[in-house]
Amino acid sequence: MLQAIKYNDGSLEILDQLQLPFVQKYIAIRSAEDGWHAIKDMKVRGAPAIAIVAMLALSSELHSLRVAKTLPEAPEEARTLIVSKLDYLVTSRPTAVNLSDAAHKLEAIVTNKAKEAAATGLGVVAAFVEAAEHMLGQDLDDNQRIGHHGAEWIMAHATETGNVAVLTHCNTGSLATSGYGTALGVIRSLKSKDVLRRAYCTETRPYNQGSRLTAFELVHDEIPATLITDSMAGALLADTSVGLNAIVVGADRVAANGDTANKIGTYGLAVLAKHHGVKFLVAAPRTTIDLATKSGKDIVIEQRSSSEVTSIKGPRDGTGTTDGVILETVQIAAPGISVWNPAFDITPAVLIDGIITEVGVVEKGSDGHFHMADVFNDSTSRR
Ligand SMILES: CSC[C@@H](O)[C@@H](O)C(=O)COP(=O)(O)O
Question: Domains of the chain (ranges plus CATH)?
């Protein structure tokens, strides 16, 4: 499996996803500022990975301050330093809730630590670093459970249990998480159970997370897969010889009523799935479920640069797979055209058959609505 995030004792490296699939290069992230830029520029992307990298970027900076012996000695000062960096990190990208969720949880941890009678600045920092490091292993664990629950659900709803085909969108794999993946984790689990006939992945314009990243992971991990352009999805669903069992996507934020923000194009796929009677599933850890957001209407959608739509990047020689390849940006749209580039869209809950989490698949109640607060109103709720 590919590894997007490498972390060891204060030293953080991420696989630069801007250069994939042509160049596999790790870059060092030494500070919250490095982390902010890596997230904003999409060197790392995907809701869980963004949150983990942000927290570990700050851990890395705190590690350097500790080595340089420049950490604040007073616990309240250490807390203030950490909270100001967290506030800064959450401004990098607005839609995925995992980042603000992680920031809130870790802020609570350092605030409680700073209140202890014997608290020290070093102790507050150590509590932050421990919690940030824990996220890395926890996410991998959660993804494996998501994969298992999703695969079981799809098999239980398939007419031919041992012969399943699924379509996925964007990248939700090892590159978007600490490993294994969410929606791609479901595909991985179907493969490991030997029931996956074929996975289909969309190209995912404009940023091509599907053709660059998901396709790369599928080839790398030898999962039987076919790439389609986004505009081919309708024809794929209409083709009865393909016999698609389900569309499985990830999520950047799931509201309390089940409305789901995910990569632009997800909504269109859900409409197609409904029309063709194909199951539509969202796979996400509980950290992506935002009970404080009532519905999709309350989710802020990130707008990105028009250049992502009007240009495309690839290797200059068109063949390279090794380091040293020169990546070139080429204009593909008519100069002067205005562009709308929302990075995500909202899929209304009514189009979703199930939300796959690490504790099982949440389905609608007998009233036809998701009741996320009833299922998750425990220690996982935030704010
Ligand atoms: C497990 S990742 C789930 C989502 O974050 C993913 O589908 C997605 O929309 C990623 O968008 P990106 O803009 O590449 O960060």
Answer: 5-139 (1.20.120.420), 149-376 (3.40.50.10470)
